[in-house]
């Protein structure tokens, strides 16, 4: 069986505080599997049961469908301000193994370590159905292997949740996805893990994740380390890595907006109420030609915004160069998808970026047709007024600003 736990330098500081019955803050930082009421809640309950004298406070810092790139930018707002003793980091599934994720994960680690050398970090790697065959062949996911390089460099423990899940599939004790065998077939006594090949069922699927994490924590606890100041090497693992300088900023004070923008809050706008856990309010414009300009120093700029059936697209000009388009309409298309975009990397220095709502509209029916979503394509034709708009709704700016 493959190794599921790599303990490295362990979790000495949070374990010592738990054993002493002290106050402890644990932040669960990741995507949808973290945000759900699954392993996050179950492991916190297990820890409280193990350490009844400790006051364990948990923070849900998961956002569906987002990876370590947004994670780097929102770390201060969603993680560091809580002064955590332990941070679970779960981004393998949404990062998808892209090469840049190694730099971004390192950026997350370095931001945490810069705030406190005594904050423990734990990497957890979830899996999708497509990963099972690799585990059965003795191979970890590509994205997990990249994060393992970061874990080795900084001494961070890691847990491969796919090992136990894939072993149960091999033994015929688990059906990964409910529809994979067909409606008329079943395996007597087998657990169904997910309905969609990605998100474990609660509680059955997430219980397997939780059992893997808790038995790993029991092993880490046996290391019996004293309180430990974690290392922060001067040299980054990824050369010239800028991502420890990522941040999330309000538009106020950073962007010059044209007259047609309005600021809506949860008090006066329904969509702002739906997203008040992400943004205190939204900057909203509806007409082509409305624009905003940002002057900043750094390597990356991006937007954290909300798309939907009414979304338009932005014409972007960087330092007076050739304009290009950034479409804010998404195929999820129901205002329940928090979305973000980073523009391509720029040379580190001063830049002026202008965003303007484009006159041309995305052919939304064609986009759904290309995606094979016939039902939504028909919906565009039945309700053209919903889609024939150019609305832009902005929450935050995303910036990466390493020293020049």
Distance between the termini: 48 Å
Say how many strands there are. 19
Computed over alpha carbons, the radius of gyration is 23 Å
Tell me the strand order in the biggest sheet. 1-6-5-4-2-3
Strand residue percentage:
25-35%
**Overall SS class:** alpha/beta
Low-confidence stretches: none
How many helix segments?
A: 14
- Mean pLDDT figure: 94
Instruction: Note the main sheet.
Output: 6 strands, mixed
Helix content: 25-40%
Q: What is the 3D form?
A: globular
In words, what does this structure look like?
- By secondary structure, the protein is of the alpha/beta class.
- Helix content is 31%, strand content 25%.
- It is built from 14 helices and 19 strands.
- The strands form four sheets. It has a six-stranded mixed β-sheet, sandwiched between helices. Strands 9, 11, 12, 14, 17 and 19 form a six-stranded antiparallel β-sheet that branches. A five-stranded antiparallel β-sheet has the order 10-13-18-15-16, with no helix packed on it.
- Strand 15 and strand 16 form a beta hairpin.
- Helix 4 runs parallel beside helix 6, helix 6 packs parallel to helix 8 and helix 12 packs antiparallel against helix 13.
- The longest helix is centred in the middle third of the chain and has 18 residues.
- The protein is globular and about 60 Å long.
């Amino acid at each position: 069986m493959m190794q599921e736990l790599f303990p490295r330098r362990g979790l000495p500081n949070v374990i010592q505080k738990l054993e002493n019955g002290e106050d402890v803050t644990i932040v669960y930082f990741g995507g949808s599997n973290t945000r759900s009421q699954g392993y996050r809640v179950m492991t916190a309950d297990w820890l409280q049961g193990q350490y009844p004298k400790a006051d364990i406070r948990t923070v849900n810092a998961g956002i569906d469908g987002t990876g370590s790139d947004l994670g780097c930018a929102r770390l201060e707002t969603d993680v560091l301000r809580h002064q955590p003793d332990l941070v679970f980091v779960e981004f393998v599934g949404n990062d998808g193994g892209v090469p840049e994720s190694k730099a971004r994960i390192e950026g997350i680690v370095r931001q945490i370590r810069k705030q406190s050398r005594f904050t423990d970090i734990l990497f957890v790697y979830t899996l999708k159905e497509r990963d099972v065959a690799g585990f059965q062949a003795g191979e970890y996911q590509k994205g997990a292997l990249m994060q393992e390089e970061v874990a080795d460099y900084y001494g961070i423990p890691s847990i491969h949740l796919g090992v136990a899940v894939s072993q149960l599939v091999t033994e015929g004790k688990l059906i990964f996805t409910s529809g994979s065998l067909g409606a008329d077939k079943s395996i007597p006594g087998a657990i169904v893990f997910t309905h969609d090949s990605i998100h474990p069922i609660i509680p059955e699927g997430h219980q397997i994740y939780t059992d893997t994490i808790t038995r790993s924590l029991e092993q880490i606890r046996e290391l019996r380390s004293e309180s430990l100041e974690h290392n922060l090497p001067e040299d980054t693992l990824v050369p010239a890595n800028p991502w420890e300088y990522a941040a999330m900023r309000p538009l106020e004070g950073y962007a010059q907006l044209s007259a047609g923008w309005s600021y809506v809050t949860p008090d006066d706008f329904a969509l702002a109420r739906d997203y008040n856990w992400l943004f205190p309010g939204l900057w909203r414009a509806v007409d082509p030609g409305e624009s905003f300009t940002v002057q900043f120093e750094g390597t990356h700029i991006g937007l954290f915004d909300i798309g939907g059936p009414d979304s338009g697209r932005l014409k972007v000009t960087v330092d007076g160069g050739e304009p290009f388009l950034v479409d804010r309409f998404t195929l999820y298309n129901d205002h329940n998808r928090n979305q973000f975009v980073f523009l391509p990397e720029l040379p580190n220095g001063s830049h002026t970026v202008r965003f303007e709502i484009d006159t041309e509209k995305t052919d939304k029916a064609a986009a759904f047709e290309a995606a094979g979503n016939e039902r939504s394509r028909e919906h565009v034709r039945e309700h053209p007024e919903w889609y024939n708009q150019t609305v832009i709704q902005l929450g935050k700016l995303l910036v990466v600003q390493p020293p020049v």
